[in-house]
Amino acid sequence: MQGRLIVFEGVEGVGKTTQLQRVHGWLLAGKWFGQTGEMPSVVVTREPGGTQLGLGVRQLLLEQRGQELIQAKSELLLYAADRAQHVETVLKPTLSKGAIVLCDRFTDSTIAYQGYGRGLEMSLIEQLNQIATGGLTSDLTLWLDLDAEIGLERVRQRGGSDRIEQSDLDFHLRVQAGFLHLHQRYPDRIVRIDANRDEAAVTHSIQHILMQYLDRWYGSALN
Ligand code: T5A
Question: Ligand 1 centre from 222 Cα, in Å?
């Protein structure tokens, strides 16, 4: 059976990584799955940086390097290169074995950040996403919705902002608007989660949504 790709998206500091780890633990504990049959394995990955090549690309993208500004098109192409490697060497093989893949960011980040944020042409981004993914899309994207300013404040409190986090507030507000538009365009694939609550409340909402999708996908195998 083909696996399922579940993606976590949102603005900076929205709590994706925290929630992805909680969901990982919950899925592994297996209470959602029935006693019969073999539970799918669960794999965690991320973009950028889900491969060896991707780790190098992630450094290039996120570290502040001297005075040279990375151009928007160069940035877009680096994300696409990271994704092409990730899809071919991690996502496709893992999904073909039937695993549930939890991925921190995917194609919708490129639309929100490089499209809405940087203002690059959407047709160019969609073309590159298509080339990098070969048409692979998420089965479910959990969009953690939080005011960009609150997310940036969380990042500040944690300490150590990266190159993209250091962009001005208007950029982050455009990214946030981008995620809202994507959710409105694909309401079944991109589900909104109110991330302006404590971690446990956010996890609870995610589990509620996930149960509906897991039921659709695995039906009678569920508890
Ligand atoms: N990017 C990525 C593009 O521009 N284009 C693309 O195509 C792709 C794929 C990647 C960067 O690249 C950009 C987007 C990003 O700028 P990243 O590391 O994946 O970098 O993304 P970040 O959003 O920067 O990851 P962060 O780790 O900073 O944020 P998370 O994962 O959303 O948040 P998390 O879980 O680490 O939590 C942040 C802080 O908030 C606290 C946590 O304890 C932590 O201190 N927190 C909460 N506080 C209060 N209430 C809650 N509910 C909380 N949940 C977490």
Answer: 31
